[in-house]
């Protein structure tokens, strides 16, 4: 995860929903999660172009364990969500992680034997949006990570998790922001619930990466 990208609300130029004031849900999320986000970045260490293949594999296994639990829960929450801009399940990452782990030599039997990660309960849409803020922000920040990894012959074919949308990553981040802003609106309870869920998701990532 790259804080300069994933935790910024002004990465995509020309977004008409940028800078909506202190009450804006995206600004609140960015401010409230900044410290947790920084801790996760420190755990990941993917900004190091010399990261060992073994450490990289461990990080990707942690991401796999997290998404293995997160995505079915998000399926249940967003399977019939009314706003098409959300495009769920088009934001699934589990398939990319499996592909990357296979490229790193992790066998299907090994994946099956992995314990599931502990992630927060998700019993409402607010919790789902909090989790999506984290996972989609990681995809946005992953563009820089992919450039580092692309120079590594030993990691060839093992970083599709960071490039799942091709050249559409900016548009899809903008779409998520628009959906989230529309859903939260001026509802303070919804805003607080989304922020709480995002923090809990960051904590789950931090725990899995240690």
UniProtKB/TrEMBL annotation:
Pfam families noted in UniProt: Heme_oxygenase
Record-linked InterPro entries: Haem_Oase-like (IPR016053), Haem_Oase-like_multi-hlx (IPR016084)
Gene Ontology MF, one: heme oxygenase (decyclizing) activity
Superkingdom field: Bacteria
GO BP annotations listed: heme oxidation
Protein name as annotated: Heme oxygenase
Species of provenance: Parafrankia irregularis
């Amino acid at each position: 995860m790259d804080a300069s990208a994933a935790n910024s609300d002004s990465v995509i130029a020309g977004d008409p929903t940028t800078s909506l004031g202190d009450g804006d849900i995206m600004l609140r999320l960015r401010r409230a999660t900044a410290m947790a986000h920084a801790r996760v970045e420190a755990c990941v260490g993917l900004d190091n172009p010399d990261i060992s293949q073994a450490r990289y594999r461990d990080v990707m296994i942690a991401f796999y364990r997290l998404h293995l639990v997160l995505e079915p829960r998000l399926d249940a929450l967003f399977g019939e969500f009314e706003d098409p801009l959300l495009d769920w399940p088009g934001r699934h990452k589990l398939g990319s992680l499996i592909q990357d782990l296979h490229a790193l030599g992790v066998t299907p039997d090994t994946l099956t034997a992995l314990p599931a990660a502990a992630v927060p309960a998700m019993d409402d849409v607010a919790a789902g949006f909090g989790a999506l803020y984290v996972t989609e922000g990681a995809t946005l920040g992953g563009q820089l990570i992919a450039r580092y990894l692309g120079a590594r012959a030993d990691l060839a074919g093992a970083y599709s998790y960071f490039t799942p949308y091709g050249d559409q990553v900016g548009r899809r981040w903008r779409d998520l922001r628009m959906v989230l802003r529309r859903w939260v609106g001026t509802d303070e309870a919804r805003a607080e619930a989304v922020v709480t869920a995002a923090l809990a998701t960051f904590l789950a990532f931090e725990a899995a990466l240690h």
